[in-house]
Amino acid sequence: MADVRGAPSTAAQPGAPGKKALPATLTTRARPIALAWACAAVILLWSGLDLAVAAGGAAAPDAIDAAIARYHEMLDEGNPAELDEQRGEQLWKTAAGPAHATLERCDLGRGPGVVKGAYAELPRLFADTGRVQDLESRLITCLTTLQGIPESEVVAKPFSTDSARSDIEALVAYVAGQSRGVTMQVPLHDAKEKEAYALGERLFFYRAGPYDFSCASCHSSSGSRIRLQDLPNLATTAGAQRAYTSWPAYRVSQGLFRSFQWRLNDCFRQQRFPEPVYASDATIALTMFIAANANGARYNGPGIKR
Amino acid sequence: MGDPMKIKATLQDGVTEVKILMRHPMETGLRKDESGALVPAWFITEVSAIHGDRVVLRAQFGTSVSRNPYLAFRFKGGQPGDRVTVSWVDSKGDRRSDEAAIG
Amino acid sequence: MVGGVLAPTALYAADPALDARFKQLLQHDFRARGGAGMDRLEQDSVQKICTDTRDRPQPAQREDLQKEQQALIRWPADGQFLGDWRAGEKVAQDGRGMTWADLPGAAGGGGCYGCHQISPQEIAFGTIGPSLLQLGRKRGNSLQMQRYVYGHIYNAKAYNVCSYMPRFGLSHALSEQQIKDLVALLLDPDSPVNR
To answer: Number of C-alpha atoms within 13 angstroms, CB side, residue A12?
Structure first.
């Protein structure tokens, strides 16, 4: 049991898990003691972490995992993704483009204008385009057909940068947020939907490039991580459920909201592949594979990540 | 006029808890962009919150506060329906003010 | 679905129509960018067999491929394998290089900490590959061991054909000197890995 009397007081900061602020007087009163116990536990955890690593070998994965989990807990309050959801809702309801129309007639699979629950059922086959589409390709359909914006303009800069924010990413945040708490039920009824799943699975396991990487190289075993980033096993139901239901998400390290298409793009970049075309059939197929694997889970997004 | 804040104010046992999510780049002036050039400093310098005729919070922000700051604080008092107004000023002199009703 | 693990759908040989559609997808839905050309999507023998067998090749396939890969290793002309461990630590820390965002031909690193624990001071290490802590101390640093480590970094597939480890020498991701520096990081008795 560690004696935390006189321990230095440090304010809680994101990215520095474990250190809590201590009141100046800290001994016999009930509340300060409860805080002291909490601090002791956290300091023990942190020093346990150091000890475990110094010992080397099978370094206590639980200690590191627990510290990472606390960091996530601290991030969960006040997710800036909510600001993107707000902006997306405004874009949805504001008339724009040469047709001067809103997106309120956009059909995301549950009927024109029905946004609630739509993300939990994507990707799916759409009768009007005859294609299996994910959210982002469907937004392209609506932005072009309802608002008359040329496709080249819509897909020109799909991912936000510090200086230029992407409207599509805000719309993704809004639509995804409207499926919060809804159970994932991506359909695999039509032959095209099944084909998309099978193609996505192939792409998932396709080893190529100078590093011989496939998605599976990182994402087909349970319990491993790259640096300190846990890697979900997307080839299992449990792994896919945990991972898919936390995207799209606000990325703290980038200070930006990121969509699932962005996640796929950045994965392919790190796989040393050539670049996937934004919202193309290949990316939709891969999304179908992972999203359908996540069926049955409650959608928790938009999330917040390191 | 900066981007709108998201404010939630809830009353419990005579104490109002206010949670604020601000949208601001909070550039420290030390960061380099993709081309290697220094991104100029631009950050919120002051935040204040008013309930009725009372200033319930005054904070000095600086470069150690991260992008899109989240701030939560509590004050004694408040009634459901009362307005809490939160305002900030930044280093360029830009301002933002938003309000929420205590729920 | 059994026990939460999804059974693989019918494998590749069985469906030529799906095969053709998949090839079309690759050609149509990817594009070259920076140093990452479309040729990167063409599979060599290792990539094809490991993909088709989901990294579980038949013993005979494994033997043949490993022999083939072993022959592709370019050993250092001077017969020396030990470089400078301090430089090696930098190579192990640096995960850049070979992506479409990197300058083609620019020097990069091995990104070794992405998958491995190496030096005890670095706690931000991955667990995809085995821990390399104390490697020199455990396995010695004989010339034979140095050669093995060099060969493994140059072409991991020569030793374990469907390994997830990239072929750093063969792909020119790392130079001869960089690989020597990594060997030193792992085997030099003065390296923090072995102290």
So the answer is: 16
Is the distance from CB of A82 to CB of B21 less than 8 angstroms? yes
- Give residues with Cβ within 8 angstroms of B16, minimum separation 6: B9, B10, B51, B74, B75, B76, B77, B78, B84, B102
Contacts of A266 (CB under 8 A, 6+ apart): none
Sequential DSSP letters for C19-44 = HHHHHHHHHHHEE-BTTB-GGGGS--
d(CA C36, CA C97): 11
**For residue range A218-263, what is the model confidence (pLDDT) as tens digits?**
999 999 999 999 999 999 999 999 999 999 999 988 889 999 999 9
Under 8 Å between Cβ of C187 and C149: yes
Peptide bond into A248 cis (omega under 30): yes
**ipTM for this model:** 0.93
Hey, what domains does chain C have and what are their CATH numbers? 12-56 (no CATH), 85-187 (1.10.760.10)
Tell me whether A51 touches chain C (CB under 8 Å).
no
The answer to whether the CB of A224 falls within 8 A of the CB of C126 is yes
What is the residue range of B76's domain? 6-30+37-101
CA angle A277, A283, A286 (to 5 degrees): 160
Could you give the angle at the alpha carbon of C40 between the alpha carbons of C35 and C43, nearest 5°? Answer: 165
Give the chain A residue whose CA is nearest to the CA of B72.
A78
Please indicate, yes or no, if residue B81 is contained in any of the structural domains: yes
CATH topology of domain A81-305: Cytochrome Bc1 Complex; Chain D, domain 2 (1.10.760)
Report CB contact under 8 Å: C51, A205: yes
Partner C, chain A 214-233, Cβ-Cβ below 8 Å = 214, 216-218, 221, 223-228, 231
Chain A residue numbers with beta carbons less than 8 Å from the beta carbon of C114 are 226-227
DSSP-assigned beta bridge partners for residue B15? B12, B76
Provide CB contacts within 8 A for C161, sequence distance 6+: C46, C49, C50, C57, C61, C62, C65, C66, C69
* Number of domains into which chain B is organized: 1
User: B101, B16 in Cβ contact below 8 A?
Assistant: no
Report if residue B51 sits inside a domain: yes
Confirm whether B96 is domain-assigned. Answer: yes
Name the pLDDT band for A13 (thresholds 50, 70, 90): very low
Q: Which of A38-42, A134-138, A232-236, B88-92 has the lowest mean pLDDT?
A: A38-42
Q: For residue B24, what is the domain's CATH number? A: 2.60.40.10
Q: Please, what sign has the CA dihedral across residues C103, A231, A245, A240?
A: positive
The domain segmentation of chain A, as residue ranges, is: 9-77, 81-305
| Residue among B12, B7, B3, B30 nearest B77 (CA) | B12
d(CA A273, CA A76): 33
Contacts of A14 in chain B (CB under 8 A): 66
> What are phi and psi for residue B70, nearest 5 degrees?
-115, 130
Cβ-Cβ contacts under 8 Å, A80 against chain B: 21, 23, 67-68, 70
Cβ pair C102, C34 in contact under 8 A? yes
Are A255 and B19 an interchain contact pair (Cβ–Cβ within 8 Å)? no
